[in-house]
Known about the structure:
Blueprint: H1 15-28, E1 37-38, E2 51-52, H2 57-76, H3 80-98, E3 107-116, E4 119-129, E5 132-133, E6 139-142, H4 151-163, E7 173-177, H5 180-186, E8 197-200, E9 207-209, E10 214-215, H6 222-256, H7 263-273, H8 276-281, H9 284-291, H10 293-300
Helix pairs in contact: 3-6, 4-5, 9-10
Amino acid sequence: DHQTLIIANTELLDEKDVLIEFIEKYYRETEDRPKYVNADTAMKIESAPPLQKPQRGWRKKLLALGLTNARQLATASLSSWEKQEQAAVKALTQIQKGLALKDKPARIEVYDISNIQGVYAVGSMVVFTHGRPDKKEYKRFQIKGTTGPDDPHMMQEVVARRLNHTDWPVADLMILDGGKSQLSVVSELSNLNKNKVVALAKQNEILYTTTGQAIRFKTNSPAFLLIQRMRDEAHRFAISYYRQRHTKGNIISKLDEIPGIGPKTKKILKQKYGSWENVKQAPNAELEKLIGPAKTKLIKNS
């Protein structure tokens, strides 16, 4: 038989202290008290059987088995957040060394642009704090000052607007998804710290610096996997905002083409159905109840 007790907050304790805490806790909670306990250290503990260190025979083998089991359990039971913490520290250390940063980048901001031929263009900023997504810090930008399919200048607009927010925490590293062209245009910003901005190529996770270096971390290294995850998260966030804008814009643009459908009706239909396709598929009786027979006829005949 075996039982397990995991003791937390042991960073400041040595193995002897951990053993004492374990023995004391266990024998306070059990009535099964042997004459002695096999242990790696011989000692007397108040309110517990004495600890003896076996030197040979089956008792020594039993202790060795217990030690093996404990080590395996410690590895297996390492909580997921601790594993993530360790991987994040390794990744950030690798990024720091690879990019020759003064410190490990505690706050990394990753930017992406999403549009189709410049229509409904949006930008996203996702933030990773100490290697983990910090979703409360995510930001979305509706592109306002750039027209047509011009991703580099859209990226410049987004970064410029972000830099104007001096009340936001300062980034230790800014990653632009898109490559050299985005980096070149963004680097024109006068208030940009060029030592803390890199561009990420669309393929192969190659990072380009403002000094012309191309850096690629080993595949499946902690740094490579973290960069890949940050890029995917920025892309996902940008795409979700683009789809949201596109869906809203689509229904409004279709309704704009129908004479006799005013702003109030557009708002009602957008809130109720969300897309033009849903409006067209809605039953006549449902629409008539919502906006009246005349406007329903206009929509159905459009």
